[in-house]
Design goal:
Helices cover 83% and strands 0% of the residues. It is mainly α. The N and C termini lie far apart (171 Å).
């Protein structure tokens, strides 16, 4: 058939009887071919693309780009919003919850240690461990020491005697029986088994040759019925269809990747244009109004109104403080005159605070001028 001509020739194995084949297969080592992993291996040449590939690729990429651009714009907006929400809301909330959780965990750990760990540690250290050590010492004294003495003084001699008795009663008769009876019988059985083996081997070889002929016929029929049509179907139908599907899927995948990257540039340009447009519509007019209207008006108001008003307020404050000072001084003098009018003046010296850090006025003619003036003012007028 024509299909048979397109298939590679099948190597004909050298058939041998099955015992020899098994022995040869067990004796032959399995040798793997060398695999070259060096970097100096030549790279495969790029595959040439035909006009059909280029003609199919361009419309696919255009259609995919049109479909992907809105998705990429929305995706970039969602990414920016999600990043803003994460940076401004989720991360601080997470940090606060982390601090709260660490505090709660520290408190729970301390309470857990106080309620569950430390009581058991104290129970083990001060109750169970001493009691266990005492019980171990008691068990050693009452059980281990007597058992060791019984093993050394009683069981060891009895065991040696039993071993000698068993050797004389069992081992020596069994050895004589094996040497005088079982060995000749075993040799005879081995010779008989060897003869049976050669007979069975001859029968097996006969069956092997029969089965070999049947296997060759059945294998040839199965090969022509199943293998040759399946290979032809794979080579001339499934493989081309699979390559076409893989090519189309690869081109669609490459188109999606290329469209996603191009859509990223388009999305960046669109958002940049929108930001510039919003800046020109809202930010720049506000900045211009602030710089050319509000700032000069503010400077005029500051120089013509606020600063003179501030100076006037400060001057009024100084005048008011001076007036209040003069009023307080006048009131103080009036109270002093009224006190002198009612109670008169006393010639007794004012009390001086005693102590290591007290400040004293000099006495006699060394008094200060202010003190002399005060005493002169407070002294009664001389009578003529």
């Amino acid at each position: 058939m024509d299909l048979e001509k397109g298939l590679p020739p099948e190597p004909q194995p050298q058939w041998k009887p099955w015992p020899e084949r098994v022995a040869e297969a067990a004796a032959e080592p399995v040798a793997a071919g060398p695999v070259s992993l060096t970097k100096d291996a030549p790279e495969p040449a790029p595959r040439a693309e035909g006009c059909l590939v280029v003609a199919l690729r361009l419309p696919v990429r255009i259609v995919v780009l049109v479909l992907v651009v809105p998705v990429r714009i929305v995706w970039d907006a969602l990414v920016v919003c999600a990043r803003f929400v994460y940076d401004r809301a989720l991360r601080p909330v997470g940090r606060a919850l982390g601090w709260v959780w660490r505090g709660i965990a520290a408190v729970l750990a301390f309470v857990g240690k106080l309620l569950f760990v430390w009581p058991w540690v104290a129970l083990w250290r001060y109750v169970l461990k001493p009691v266990g050590l005492g019980l171990l010492w008691l068990v050693r004294l009452l059980v281990v020491v007597p058992a060791v003495w019984a093993y050394r003084r009683v069981l060891t001699p009895v065991g040696h005697g039993l071993v000698w008795l068993g050797r004389m009663l069992v081992v020596v008769p069994a050895r004589w029986l094996y040497a005088r009876l079982l060995t000749p019988v075993g040799h005879g059985l081995a010779w008989l088994a060897r003869g049976v083996w050669w007979v069975v081997r001859g029968i097996g070889l006969g069956f092997w040759w029969v089965l070999r002929g049947i296997g060759i016929v059945v294998g040839t029929l199965l090969r022509w019925i199943f293998v040759v049509p399946a290979v032809a179907l794979w080579r001339w139908v499934l493989a081309p269809v699979g390559r076409a599907v893989a090519f189309v899927a690869g081109e669609i995948g490459d188109a999606f990747g290329h469209a996603w990257r191009v859509a990223g540039h388009i999305s960046r340009a669109v958002w940049h244009f929108l930001c510039r447009l919003l800046k020109l519509i809202f930010v720049e007019p506000g900045r211009w109004v602030y710089r050319h209207l509000f700032t000069p008006v503010g400077h005029v108001l500051r120089d013509a109104l606020w600063r003179p008003a501030g100076r006037a307020v400060r001057a009024v404050g100084h005048v008011a403080r001076a007036a209040l000072g003069s009023v307080r001084e006048s009131a103080r003098e009036a109270r002093a005159d009224f006190r002198r009018l009612l109670f008169g003046t006393s010639r007794e010296k004012l009390p001086v605070t005693e102590g290591p850090g007290a400040r004293r006025e000099p006495a006699g003619g060394e008094a200060r001028t202010l003190d002399k003036k005060v005493r002169r003012e407070m002294s009664p007028p001389k009578r003529g």
